[in-house]
Amino acid sequence: MTHETAIHPPDRPPARLLLATDLGARCDRALDRSAQLAREWQAELIALNVLDPSVCADQTHAWISGATDDQLMSVAERQLSRDLSGMKMPVKIRIVQGREPDTAIRETATAVGADLVVTAVARQETFGRVLLGTTNERLARSLKPALLVVRGRAQGPYQRILVATDFSEMSRHALLTAAAFFPGRDLTLYHAYTPPMSGPGTTASIGVTSRQIALAECGEFVQETRLSEGTLMHPVVECGRIPIKLARYVRDNDIDLVVIGGHSHGGIMSMLLGSTAAKLLEFLPCDTLLVQSRHVAV
């Protein structure tokens, strides 16, 4: 007989980062953030390009000119080397071919043992037609390592970090991961609740009771989460639909990074990847760390 148990969250920052870049201009932000994190964590950095002549002008020209696959890979490697030349740190380069970028990224992440995959949102390019981009959305649903989607410029280490919670085990995993990745940072634990049968006729007493319940649940969640001694965290509980309230809170408080936990069958991640919430999350002016908390049979 088997039963399911959650995979244990990490107890240290990532040791190996995989930067997935399509060589487009907006991927420079993901490149800069990858370099900053690699230096902060003393981690190995691997830069990956999935060969796609339709994205890069150099590759397109070579492809039209009848270049072979090996020649196309050489073109991509030269451009990626140029992009990485100013990083002043060792970076391994991998160029792979694949018809589906998310499959190639996922397989490479497994092959190199990546603890974190870093991508960018780049509209009308491989990584950015919608919310997280077609590629990123697929990665969010299937990738085993954490996925960092970079939107903003890397002005320095992440300082204002928010962890969204629905008090599930998936969001507990996200909180523990954030604490392990960013020790010593002041974490905001954010929860948005909706009173039962909320609407124009909702009474004040129902609203007060709902808030008291949410605060009690939040306190219990924190108490039951085994955070390392010295972890700094303050809870925020607001009334409203989480996508709308979360977006507003992020903007009003200059949040650098939102951490979301879940798996492909439920949790906040699935909610935020839904059609309505996806459109809202697309406009968050900050980076997003998606933490998978898969269950395995034992």
Tags for this model:
alpha/beta; 10-stranded mixed beta sheet; Rossmann fold; 10 helices; 298 residues; 12 strands
Q: How would you describe this structure to a colleague?
A:
With 298 residues, the chain is of the alpha/beta class. The protein has 2 domains: 4-150, HUPs (Rossmann fold), CATH 3.40.50.620; 161-297, HUPs (Rossmann fold), CATH 3.40.50.620. It is built from 10 helices and 12 strands. The protein has helices at 27-41, 57-64, 69-84, 101-112, 133-142, 169-181, 204-224, 242-252, 267-272, 275-281, and strands spanning 4-6, 16-20, 44-51, 92-97, 116-120, 146-150, 161-164, 186-193, 232-239, 257-262, 287-292, 295-297. The strands form 2 sheets. Strands 4-3-2-5-6-11-10-7-8-9 form a 10-stranded mixed beta sheet, with helices on both faces. Helix 1 links the parallel strand 2 and strand 3 (44-51). Mean pLDDT is 79; it is low at 1-5 and 124-132.
